[in-house]
Amino acid sequence: MKPHSSQDVTNVFIVEDHKIIRRVLGKLIQSTPGLNLYGEAASAEAALAQIPTCQPQLVLIDVSLPDINGIELIGILHEKYPDMLLLAVSGHDESMYGIQAINAGARGYVMKGRVEGTGGHSPRS
Amino acid sequence: VITMNEKSDKDEATDGDVGEEFPQPIMAFEPANVSQYLSAIGDNIAAGALSAAIYTCAAPSGAITFYNEHAVKLWGRTPELGDTDERFCGSFKLWRPDGTFLPHDQAPMAVTLRDGHSFRNEEVVIERPDGTRIKVLVNIDPIHDAAGRVVGALNTFNDLTRLKQASEAQARLAAIVETSDDAIVSKSLDGMIQSWNGSAERIFGYSAAEAVGQSITLIIPPELQDEERMILERLRRGERVDHFETVRVSKSGDLIDISLTVSPVKNATGQIVGASKVARDITERKRRERALRQLTETLEERVQERTAQVQQLASQLVAAEQTVRQHIAHLLHDDLQQMLFAVEMQLELLRADTERQDEFDEILETTRQALILTRQLAVELSPPVLEGAGLYETFTWLARHIADTYQLHVRVEGSDSSITASGEQRSLLYQIVRELLFNVVKHAGVPEAQVVLQAKEDGFTITVSDQGQGFDLAALTGTENRHFGLRSVQERLQLFGGWADIDSQPGGGTRVTLFLPEEQPTPNRTVQR
Predict the structure, then answer these.
(1) Contact (CB<8Å) B341/A27
(2) What pTM does this model have?
(3) Predicted ipTM?
């Protein structure tokens, strides 16, 4: 994943513990004009190690992570990088973690499986 | 005891007008001889006035100068005092034991008056005017004046048959007392032991020789000495002490459980002169009582232990069930759902590159359905809210879920009650309330139901009610699912020490009240407001 920065391209970082989801999300991002897959991590710890160096504009964060949970990670990142766009991604419906994610500093909540549905904000919005 | 009529003379004292209860001696005497008469009668009268017949005669005339009521009874007639025609004896006729006639002037009294001879237990037969004869034992002593001359004689005589009967009766009583299994003891009012039977010897270990003359406190343990004061106090008031259960101590120092009955003993004048104590050894009975009590306690302990074990098992079972549910839910959510999600996204990506978009849309739709189903299944198996939430939050979440899924509006009340429920209790109640709400969806035919939480003194209740069709509880048969479900609700709650009350009538709605006791604080305890 070679980062290349440009004014009209949004650099996206994925924090997702499921390999298959990570790969599909990556494909989706790469196939979407204006989005650039900038990096990915399988855990909050790995994410916190990489994000300071690559400084992406948008981070997709799975709420259910094995080490630090996604909501906490959102809180940590939001405090360090208030301008970074953070999006919570979850298999749970938004009623469960939506408010928590927004309160922690996320700009939106995406429900897996309803990318084009009514439940969440899409990465483009 | 003796009453003398100072003014009496031969004419006045002939009438034997005496009290029934206590015969007064009747006397006629010459004033000069008073002291001699009295000294001779002396102890004899004092000791025997109540039971023996007594009369005196003057010497040498043989005239009767004194007799008591007992003498009149035995003679069957009342003699004239001082009448010289009626000499030596007040009886109608006298007979010797061999049946030969005994003239009055040859009677023992006549002999004594003549030569000063004393008689001891001389047997004589008295014949009464009505012809009946009684055998008497006669004791006669002469009365001397200062110069040593015989001036009269005292005759003390008793009905031999009566004496025999009395002594037989006494022997019988003594035998009863002696052979009784109970300790029978008599004591004076100051607590001195006067008699002590065989069972008293056996039970308390002291022989009669050791015990008689000692204080009854001999067998009273030091800490119970006050009891004796209380018993004596009641005796003085003439009260009985009945079946008083207490403890006495034997010669060897063993404590003996006894049941004590103490009655006052009165003399012939009704005066309380002592007490009889009957003590029954109830050590064995007490031992059996204690054994029985212990057995009962052990049984109760066992039952409590088993109940606690069963409740613990039930709790563990619910916890285990919950663990399995959570595990399956995680599998569904974290693995299956992610895979389906990945499939969905990949299909979306591929769809843009294909011309067979309609077919892709169909596959996509099927995948999304599978995704939704998996998510619902995961949530129903293990609602995320159960982990760490309170009862009110749990039911609120359940209400929303039921509203979304089954279009049943559930009102939840009781957010302000302070109820403590353990994780297992919450899990159990969640499953039960969910089943009850499903029943409303399936059977009640109304779009609304209510769940009310209430804190109680030793636990809390949850009432699930609807205004729907209701049913006849008695008419539900054992094999019907719904009946089975309700019974299982009751059984599951009972395992947790609670209960369920089901109230339903056809057309009158259904109300199910669930009760669970507040759990003892455990590390799992969750406090909710």
Answers:
(1) no
(2) 0.47
(3) 0.70
